Amino acid sequence: MTNKLNNFDAVVVGAGFSGLYMLYRLREAGFSTRVFEAGEGVGGTWYWNRYPGARCDSESIYYNYTFSEELYKEWTWSSRYPEQPEILKYLNFVADKFKLRPDIQFKTRITEAHYDEDQNNWRIQLDDRATVTAKYFITGVGCLSAANLPNFKGLENFKGKWYHTGHWPHEKVDFTGKRVGIIGTGSSGVQAIPVIADEAGELTVFQRTPQYSAPARNHPYDPEYIRQSKENFKEIKKQMRESQGGQPVPTPTKSALEVSKEEREQVYNDAWENGGLGIFSSYYDITIDEAANETAAEFIRSKICEIVKNPEMAQKLLPSYYYGTKRPIIDTNYYETFNRDNVSLVDVKSSPIVEITQKGIKTTEAEYELDAIVFATGFDGMTGPLLKMDIRGKDGVSLKEKWMGGSQTRTYLGVANSGFPNFFMITGPESPSVLSNMPVSIEQHVEWIGDCIEYLRENGMETIEANVDAEEAWSQHCREVAEATLFTKTDSWYMGANIPGKPRRFLIYLGGVGAYRQKCDEIAANGYEGFTLKFSKKPVS
Ligand code: N01
């Protein structure tokens, strides 16, 4: 099926978890496939997010591919929560093992992808001015790859150095003895703050919203635990794929309100001591019911007050939004860091940042002199990475126009779009994506897309396109599921609320990884229900 060098069966954007596996899957099936990657190496998120303290908060033995038992058994994680360098090493190992690099073009960004109806192919423009064509256009751009650098007045005047956590330099940034300011206390900020505080002379944390965080209690893995996980590979894989969140944790069956206060406290305390995201999954109604949510929220607030010695500082750190409706965070010594003499906390909700000056950061109350500023200010999530490219479907309509700048973002299953034939999104908006263990959701999409493309070939079909009514129904279903929870009541990046002017819309499917997989499989088994498939004009060979 291989064509001329600039014409492929499939073009894939991005060489992270998604792009690597998509390439492998399609190549194994005999499709000529080219991956374009802006970075100089593989890794995606883990290539760019090299900030101090970066690690994943899914447990290592579940934060990997499971499509190959051999791969799973060859790789050994060192600790419970994998650090960025180790994950990057893993993805390089995968790229080497499956000899993926020859089909990846690095340092190349896709700027445009336009569907040509006459030719029934995608015309893809690269930032080196070259053009390639492909029958299938597949994005593996991740949900969090478009960095959000708030438009603070005066950043260009700052005499020191500044960094964004999502685009961290490859060489070590040395903060020794420096006066460092960090803006943002989401997952990235909470991970970076304790590590930077260890090195810097002074660290000033500019916090807009206090966060709930629980200790990760990371630790090196016991070799026996690893041996057992490898031995139980098949069972672990099955559990991950059938679970709610992509990890084999039991689905909670009790309400936080049906048990006694003592029992609840014990459950939360055990989860706190065990480390990780246990509190979040203690009771089924934590993200559904305000009173249930408050029990978990209050427990974490009490822990903050216990840990942080200065009561005034502790007060400033107490969160008040519904626990879990911004990404729940796990940390290593986050709250403890505020007991250090070299760390101070500025509440920029009550005294907002006015501008960045030559010397540092100026709020409505004071000017803070700094040698370096770290922006841990997150990403334009879900739609941001897709809309960075000019993707146009039938009649030249862009994805941006179709989604009406985000106010009407709608997809079929989070994988396809009406009006955009032969275009697939891996972990696109309205799929479980970021509210699941990403590698599991990525594998599910890659396999579904791979199977779909094989089905088209086997049946002599040329195009597949989502139907408008199926898309509307899916999108509405996603919104209904979300609106039955507390997620839509909080200003979060899940809602697009972190980007000024971005329409509020919850773009993650909350029905669970297992149920979602079943739905996608049923649709495929029913001859790709909700899609229109068109036959080739040529006879099937
Ligand atoms: O970004 P965030 P992140 N002025 O958007 C603040 C994944 N991830 O990079 O909350 C002042 O969560 C903003 O304040 P507020 C994970 O899915 C995973 O930390 O909007 N402050 C907030 O405090 C995560 O959810 C891992 O009021 C401003 C912070 O910046 C996602 O990536 C590790 C501001 C941004 O927090 C994003 O996390 C890291 C402004 N103008 C990331 N604008 C792990 O697996 C924004 N802020 C562990």
What is the overall silhouette? Answer: globular
Count the DSSP helices: 16
- The fold-level CATH name of the largest domain is FAD/NAD(P)-binding domain
CATH architecture of the largest domain: 3-Layer(bba) Sandwich
Radius of gyration using CA atoms only: 24 Å
Q: Which percent band covers the strand fraction?
A: 15-25%
Bound molecules: 3-acetylpyridine adenine dinucleotide
Can you tell me about this structure?
The protein is an alpha/beta fold and 541 residues long. The protein has 2 domains: 6-146 and 381-528, 3-Layer(bba) Sandwich (FAD/NAD(P)-binding domain), CATH 3.50.50; 164-375, no CATH class. It has helices spanning 17-28, 45-48, 69-74, 84-97, 187-199, 223-231, 233-242, 261-274, 290-307, 311-316, 334-337, 384-387, 399-402, 438-458, 468-483, 513-525, and strands at residues 7-13, 33-36, 104-105, 110-116, 121-126, 131-139, 161-164, 179-183, 202-207, 213-215, 329-331, 343-347, 353-356, 360-363, 367-369, 372-375, 390-392, 423-425, 461-466, 531-535. Strands 1, 2, 3, 4, 5, 6, 17 and 18 form an 8-stranded mixed beta sheet that branches. Strands 7-16-8-9-12 form a 5-stranded parallel beta sheet, with helices on one face. The protein has a 3-stranded antiparallel beta sheet with strand order 13-14-15, with no helix packed on it. Strand 13 (353-356) and strand 14 form a beta hairpin. Helix 1 runs parallel beside helix 14 (438-458) and helix 14 packs parallel to helix 16 (513-525). The longest helix has 21 residues, at 438-458. The chain is globular and about 75 Å long. The mean pLDDT is 96. The structure holds 3-acetylpyridine adenine dinucleotide. 3-acetylpyridine adenine dinucleotide binds next to helix 5.
